[in-house]
Amino acid sequence: MTTDPVSAVFAALADPTRRAILARLAAGEATVNELAEPFPISVQAISKHLNVLERAGLIVRTREAQWRRCRLDPAPLRTLAEWVEQYRRLWDDRYDRLDDYLRDLKENSDERAP
């Protein structure tokens, strides 16, 4: 089992059903049955997906009488965004250097044109 938070969040987000569940929860809390409605899989299968999301810290489940409600906890997504951000700066720097190189090539070819 993955123990570091970034790996747990990436593993949870690797499945399209889990990403769809998070998208639904971004609109507001929902019960397990409400979350299961749009999917052609059993409530038990949805519960397994919810367990993965809960272990990754992406959702919180509460209990009211016989209803179990789920809500999104976006904090782990912020950690993931910060991790990705460091690579975005690297990509931006490389694209800027590529733009400079292409601009130099174009200027040099314009100067040589008759």
Proportion of residues in helical segments: 55-70%
Determine the strand fraction and express it as a percent band. Answer: 5-15%
From N to C, what is the helix and strand string? HHEHHEEH
- Number of β-strand runs: 3
**Subunit organisation of the chains:** single chain
Mean pLDDT: 92
Secondary structure tally, helices: 5
The structural class is alpha+beta
Q: Which stretches are low in confidence, meaning pLDDT under 50 for 5 or more residues running?
A: none
Mass-distribution shape: elongated
Structure description:
This protein has five helices and three strands. A hairpin with a 2-residue loop joins strand 2 and strand 3. A three-stranded antiparallel sheet has the order 1-3-2. The longest helix has 38 residues. The model has no long low-confidence stretch (mean pLDDT 92). The chain has 114 residues and is an alpha+beta fold. Helix 1 packs across helix 5.
Question: How would you summarize the topology of this molecule?
Answer:
Layout: H1 5-13, H2 16-26, E1 30-31, H3 32-36, H4 43-55, E2 59-64, E3 67-72, H5 75-112
Antiparallel strand pairs: 1-3, 2-3
Helix pairs in contact: 1-4, 1-5
